[in-house]
Amino acid sequence: MPNCKTLVNYTGTPQQEEQLRQVIEKYKGQPGAAMPVLQEAQEIFGYLPEEVQVIIANGLDLPLSEIYGIASFYAQFTMNPKGQYRISVCLGTACYVKGAAAIVEAVEKHLNIRNGGITPDGKFSLDCCRCIGACGLAPVMMINDEVYGKLTPEKVVEILNSYN
Amino acid sequence: MTITELKNIRAEMLVHMRLRRPDGSAIFESLENCPIKKQVLVCCDTGCRSSKSTEILEALQQEALDAGLEHRVIIEKTGCFGLCAAGPVVMVYPEGIFYAKVKPEDAGQIIREHIIEGTPVERLLYKEEHLEQKTPLLFNTRFYKHQMRIALRNCGIINPDKLEEYIALDGYSALARVLTEDTPQGVIDKLKASGLRGRGGAGFPTGTKWQFTHDAKSEDGVKYVCCNADEGDPGAFMDRAVIEGDPHSVIEAMTIAGYAIGSSQGYIYIRAEYPSAIKTLQSAIEQARSYGLLGENIFGTGFSFDLELRLGAGAFVCGEETALMTSIEGKRGEPRTRPPFPANKGLFAKPTLLNNVETYANIPWIFQNGPEAYAAIGTEKSKGTKVFALGGKIRNTGLVEVPMGTTLRTIIEEIGGGIPGGKKFKAAQTGGPSGGCITEENLDVPIDYESLMSIGSMMGSGGLIVMDEDNCMVDIAKFFLNFIVDESCGKCTPCRIGTRRLYDLLTKITEGKGTMEDIKTIEELCDHLKNSSLCALGQTAPNPILSTLRNFRAEYEAHVVDKKCPAGVCLSLTHYYIDPEKCRGCGMCPGVCPVGAINGVLRAPHTIDTAKCIKCGRCAEVCRLGAIYRG
């Protein structure tokens, strides 16, 4: 499950943690507190890394496994942040037959991350997506809202380097 | 707040609220002493807001201010008028003039011509498809004529952020009367007499449910009232519209429920995907509290009740009652076995009453107008009205509320305005991924809970998706299954694995690799799922397949035996061809084909190598002669 483990180092600030503790304080003792706490924690940190889950588990006096169980159950909770540059490689049929698999491989190799992952510096995240309707330019990928077409593995490296 | 204070607010507000009558029958005598002659209401429901209705509202307010009209015209936001297809929608009272597809830049003209000079802006009036002239009054449209608004009675009339406007239209009067004049058992008896049934889908008699929870014993006396606002069916949005347009009707009904069953705490479980509804509800709860309509000692009667919001986090299964309660308890939203039923052992193991938003929205009306009035509407076993969300291949997409017993033909052909593009009706899906499809031959069946069951569909929460001849029914069944596969919580095996296997088998068929044996396996598997899944999500998951198999078996067989998709939807079974009569060999299509599947010499008809073609459709897009078709 790509959702469950992140390579990004935890960068929560003491202020954010303090904010989280206040949230925990607000809900502590209330029945069913875990959900609203996780929801507000995700608003504070943008995602729910292990460190945050530990703070919540300790704060609410619940087993970490239970917090993790809730965080992994609901589609809205994510344990992986999105990068500053979100890469989506199209895996639609047109792109696939034109070598999208090699494009994915090139991105993975160059950035040393897997599909669904993020680079440790939080700069790039990689997801594969369904057809984005640019079949004439296949194979394509998007970085944030920018579309890059007629890709080759070499071109991918060039494009990625331009973001450095 | 005392009951006298409630009456005073009502009397004070009524002066201008009386002007807001959709049929244009405003009570004009109240105009004479009132400086306000015109009222402009802008729909700010999520649908209209996505096409800039908030900017329209601001522009109108600014224009009115610039013209020095701020004390002579009221400009308010309001909830859904229902005709979302014509959005953004603006209504001008007292005439009830209805403007469609308004843009922010139209604000000046509306203020100048209509508000100041008194001449409606012809250009912006709504035009019905079948008529030559425009229809200035919404009330006179074909869309509106067959409707009866009870659950949506205040949507499009009041500003949902203003509690006083709700009070002006008899809001909280039902609560006041119930608390001062009725016993809890009296309330339940009235509800039973009204014949109201659960609008969430199953249609369980609401009064009976209240009775069970009323009778249930709680050791420490704690009971809960819950509201299911986790509206997850693709295509259904009536609960969101009620909350965004008339939140107090839900709050008032839940408070009445609290009195009837002996509870002082309620929870509204609402999906996080509805941010605007959450905001409206939050602010409504705070207002009700500040007026003392929620909290301790309501109307000085000694009865106390308060409400809390709980947000979902993106899990469809949490619309199931036991899963919803587990989720409020702050756990993974997995369902559990019943019995014990929630009426005896629900939220935090206490007796709990759970109703859906639309069910609650009917309740204040029932107590204002009497259960007999409600029971007089509808069919023998299904009383009152039902809200449907019209979607799919239909002209007037939007929200409609009709008396039970209305035929599907009236809803689709009259209210919905028929199918666009001269296409032929094929089927209508009710009940979303748990429901079934209704075909042409059953269009004249009066809709109620029983009749829909008897024709192999179900009422469901009220999503109504219309499909025409261009829709492939196998593909539709696959679409719903895909949704269920994603949303199955995984707790019980039949649902977790069964839905996945069904999806795989349907995929096989749509790819032209299916066998007749597969159809048999599908039917068997559906039977297992129905009988052995833990909750309604799994038990009803086979419905879309079974109902399409029953009504459109020939279409399945065409996929399996002839390897053809009659509707031309399933990609693997259709191919692109070039019409040699039309093609002039201009050379455009070979240039864009990503796989080099188009052959031919310049100025002579080209051909497509179907073995190479990946059916991306680029060639058909660039062909200026329309020579490339799919079949």
Structural class of chain A: alpha+beta
The most extensive contact between chains is: A-B, 24 and 25 residues
CATH fold naming of the largest domain in chain B: Rossmann fold
Q: CATH superfamily membership of the largest domain in chain B, which one?
A: NADH-ubiquinone oxidoreductase 51kDa subunit
Number of strands of chain A: 4
The shape of chain B is globular
CATH class of the largest domain in chain A: Alpha Beta
Structural class of chain B: alpha/beta
Q: Name the CATH homologous superfamily of the largest domain in chain A.
A: Glutaredoxin
Number of helices of chain B: 26
Straight-line N-to-C gap of chain B: 69 Å
Averaged pLDDT of chain B = 92
In summary, what is this structure?
Helix content of chain A is 45%, strand content 11%. Chain A is of the alpha+beta class and 164 residues long.
Description:
The complex is a heterodimer of chains A (164) and B (631). With 164 residues, chain A is α+β, with helices and mostly antiparallel strands. Chain A has seven helices and four strands; from the N terminus they run ααααβααβββα. Chain A folds into two domains: 72 residues; 78 residues, Glutaredoxin (3-Layer(aba) Sandwich), CATH 3.40.30.10. A four-stranded mixed beta sheet of chain A has the order 2-1-3-4, covered by helices on one side. In chain A, a hairpin with a 2-residue loop joins strand 3 and strand 4. In chain B, the strands form five sheets. Chain B has a five-stranded mixed beta sheet with strand order 10-9-13-11-12, sandwiched between helices. Chain B folds into five domains: 124 residues, Glutaredoxin; 212 residues, NADH-ubiquinone oxidoreductase 51kDa subunit (Rossmann fold, 3-Layer(aba) Sandwich); 84 residues, Roll (Ubiquitin-like (UB roll)); 90 residues, Up-down Bundle (de novo design (two linked rop proteins)), CATH 1.20.1440; 56 residues, Alpha-Beta Plaits, CATH 3.30.70. In chain B, strand 15 and strand 16 form a beta hairpin. The mean pLDDT of chain B is 92. Chains A and B meet through helix 2, helix 4 and helix 5 of A and loops of B.
